[in-house]
UniProtKB/TrEMBL annotation:
<feature type="domain" description="Transcription regulator PadR N-terminal">
    <location>
        <begin position="8"/>
        <end position="84"/>
    </location>
</feature>
<protein>
    <submittedName>
        <fullName>DNA-binding PadR family transcriptional regulator</fullName>
    </submittedName>
</protein>
<dbReference type="Pfam" id="PF03551">
    <property type="entry name" value="PadR"/>
</dbReference>
<dbReference type="GO" id="GO:0003677">
    <property type="term" value="F:DNA binding"/>
</dbReference>
<dbReference type="InterPro" id="IPR005149">
    <property type="entry name" value="Tscrpt_reg_PadR_N"/>
</dbReference>
<keyword id="KW-0238">DNA-binding</keyword>
<dbReference type="InterPro" id="IPR036388">
    <property type="entry name" value="WH-like_DNA-bd_sf"/>
</dbReference>
<dbReference type="InterPro" id="IPR036390">
    <property type="entry name" value="WH_DNA-bd_sf"/>
</dbReference>
Length: 227
């Protein structure tokens, strides 16, 4: 997974030579398991895979008493090339972010208007709690003293502000759409999600759609031609 490779390469590059255990501790302090879905086992597996791929090399392996051996790593020329390429590819490019909420939202009419409104207000409350936590961290953040317990690098603070702004917009959206759901403006039905008449119209419409393979081919051709 590119996220694991980039995070490991970036940290090893900054801290080299560095123990794999220290990489794990630093990523844990970043809460990477929450926002990057990187589990502890993935870090050690990633270090070994990057070494096998020639992107990292072992500097030394230390054995202290009966503790598990600790291996130190550094980035190779190949690893530096991959890091620079992936870093710029992800910073300069734009990729769709698939939030599980929006996948499930496709079938939100099944909930009916009342449950949909309750769900949206609950989502707003959960996000508001996250937003307040972000703001609390930002209130005490210190970007000038790396030794301070409240130290958060300036660029990380800006990312937190961006996330907070997105949360605020999401809360507003949830509250507004909850009202629309309650007022019956979204067309939700309490049983199937849509009325039988709407579903039948939907069936007829699907029959008029182009063949999926033909549509994909047309879309790819349009992208290649810059349409």
């Amino acid at each position: 997974m590119w996220t694991t490779r980039l995070l490991i390469l970036g940290l090893v590059r900054w801290l080299q030579p560095v123990h794999g255990y220290d990489v794990l501790k630093e990523l844990t302090s970043w809460n990477a398991e929450d926002w990057a879905k990187i589990k502890p086992g993935s870090v050690y597996h990633g270090l070994k895979k990057l070494t096998t791929d020639g992107c990292l090399e072992v500097v030394s392996t230390e054995q202290v008493d009966k503790r598990p051996a600790r291996t130190s790593y550094r980035v190779t020329a190949k690893g530096e090339t991959e890091f620079q390429q992936v870093l710029r590819e992800k910073l300069w490019g734009i990729e769709p972010v698939v939030d599980p909420f929006f996948v499930a939202w496709s079938f939100a009419p099944v909930l009916g208007p009342r449950e949909a409104a309750a769900m949206l207000r609950n989502r707003a409350a959960l996000i508001t709690a996250q937003m307040r936590q972000n703001l609390a961290w930002l209130d005490v953040a210190d970007s000038g003293d790396p030794t301070a317990g409240s130290f958060i690098p300036g660029h990380v603070q800006e990312a937190m502000r961006l996330a907070t702004d997105a949360m605020r917009l999401t809360v507003d959206w949830c509250e507004r759409v909850a009202v629309r759901a309650e007022n019956g403006e979204l067309g939700f039905d309490d049983e199937r999600g849509y009325s039988e008449e709407t579903i039948e119209h939907w069936r007829r419409h699907i029959r008029t759609l182009p063949d999926p393979a033909t549509l994909r081919s047309s879309l790819r051709r349009g992208v290649d031609e810059g349409e």
